[in-house]
Amino acid sequence: MSALRFVDLPSPFPFRRGGAIRGARIAYETWGTLAATRDNAVLILTGLSPGAHAASSPDDPSLGWWEEMIGPGRPIDTNRWFVICVNSLGSCKGSTGPASIDPATGRPYGPDFPDLSIEDIAAAAWEVVAALGIERLAAVIGPSMGGMTAQALALLRPEACPHLVLISSAPHAEPFALAVRSLQREAIRLDPDWNAGRYTVDRGPIHGMRLARKLGVMTYRSPAEWKERFGRARIDQPGKAPFDREFQIETYLESHAQRFVGSFDPNSYLWLSRAMDWFDLAEHGGTVEAAYQRMAVRRALVIGVETDILFPLAQQEEIAEGLRLAGAAVDFVALPSIQGHDAFLVDFRRFAPPIARFFRSIG
Amino acid sequence: MSALRFVDLPSPFPFRRGGAIRGARIAYETWGTLAATRDNAVLILTGLSPGAHAASSPDDPSLGWWEEMIGPGRPIDTNRWFVICVNSLGSCKGSTGPASIDPATGRPYGPDFPDLSIEDIAAAAWEVVAALGIERLAAVIGPSMGGMTAQALALLRPEACPHLVLISSAPHAEPFALAVRSLQREAIRLDPDWNAGRYTVDRGPIHGMRLARKLGVMTYRSPAEWKERFGRARIDQPGKAPFDREFQIETYLESHAQRFVGSFDPNSYLWLSRAMDWFDLAEHGGTVEAAYQRMAVRRALVIGVETDILFPLAQQEEIAEGLRLAGAAVDFVALPSIQGHDAFLVDFRRFAPPIARFFRSIG
After folding, report:
1. Could you give the domains of chain B?
2. Which of A258, B142, B206, B288 is the most exposed place for a label (fewest CB within 10 A)?
3. Smallest CA–CA separation between B249 and chain A, in Å?
4. Confidence check: pLDDT of A360 > 90
5. Are B296 and B162 in contact (CB under 8 A)?
6. pTM over the 0.95 mark
């Protein structure tokens, strides 16, 4: 069962850095009911890997990636709000991306997919909002990469984005994050089965993807969490080959990697990863501060996590300060979660209260 | 020109985890003059990759990896001390390691090199000390992996190690460091040219080594340093191929990787990396605290760096506390360097004073 719906993008749909695609579409899901006045819509823009299935629904009762946050009586209360979550342009969870068939050739775009930017993802997400007849969003929520997309949308459609919730995001990537993603992409590209992007479904760069995902997980969590969860605990039955996994932390990484390899397209990963590196709010107005002035944010919630090494807390402070200087009322919340960048996916005890409070304040 | 000298290990030289090698040797260099009383010897044990060339000398005027720290009037003053630096057993800078010829077969040990432990490296280093007729060291200095080796030596020869200088080291690795090294080894092993350890000199796992080294450099430095040095600066003439390097941080990592690939044996890297993962002071007495009780350290300097993510400051505090509980007089110094784990190699302004002070105190 799937609750996915689709909106066709204008055809051709032009990309910011050149090129265009035809016959493209964006997948999304919704929860709650759009008010007759169409003023209760909340748009969720996702991190790199999740799809549009943020929460369960009658059409798809499987648990979503933000299940505890969305629903009747939950922090994003679907008795009050009409919640939309879109799968990013360039992803592989229903929206058009490098793994989609190029109508011009009848084969996957692969390396011919245009250079993707965060601004393109925002523009495509807006097409879903517009197709639903919504002119102004009650709120836009973006964790991680989704926070970059949310900021891009607030620049593209300032009047439609008065209220932002930005979680563990950034106005642009700093060099440590650039290095992590560059290395992840290199691991995939070095895998001979990547084949310059022209792999087949049954023979893709799985080794490169495993390395990339493990490196990702290492930057999504925190050393403190792992020390608490795993310490130096060994596997009960380690393999017998030299250098086989021996510590539980190695098994944890491997199981994360295995799950990811089977569920995410390598080219989508490359294109989205590079889009994050390229994104720079300073390109909109000359400086990061000027970019915030070009938005029309009235109220914002900015949440960061002290142990996040990929989107560090200092960047959340930078966002909060930039929005404040631009005249927004900003709640800045620094959480002591030990789950690092991923805390918004798991530490609901800490994340639920400020998000619930924010939605009550705009409700 | 080389200042390397060699000491033959007892043959066979048995390994802690089983196996033995024959006809093995350890490379070392020295600076200063051994006193007639043989009581002024300072032993330096290195991190994973450096060789014995810690400083220049008449026989080898090229700069060493700790040049500013060793010499007449320098913090480790060669007018006073006879300084020895050994290349670790298992390395490839003169000491016997996986790339060395196995006399039994006439070809490199490769995957037949016995499982290496930090304790083996310490035992082999001790053979150099003994061959020089030294029964008691004035001090043992160990940064990073060398600090693990120094602690292993202080357990193996307590009476010979009354004074320790431990820098950015650990009583055992925590799961984040285990994860980093596991991933580095996986990148090398996944490279088809690793060939289960039976590669040739002209065709080795260079891609895997490049990935491993880049990941290493990412954990040796700090996000704060890179933000200051590189920010989001672009390369002047980026490559034209898709996903070519574009940011200066990517070029920095690539140049580090290129230098390393040409100068370090992949199997040595694997064997030393795993030795670090295996090392656990708690194996000597049941707990880390008990292990310190088995040493006979009278005075120690323990230095950590606030931005070190690989051997975090909390582990330096653990070492200092363990030594204190065992009766040692401990100077614990936490440095605010922004160069992370590698700070001891570059931030001499901060590292020189406490080290100079320590050597005056035992002088």
Report:
1. 5-173+280-362 (3.40.50.1820), 177-272 (1.10.1740.110)
2. A258
3. 6
4. yes
5. yes
6. yes
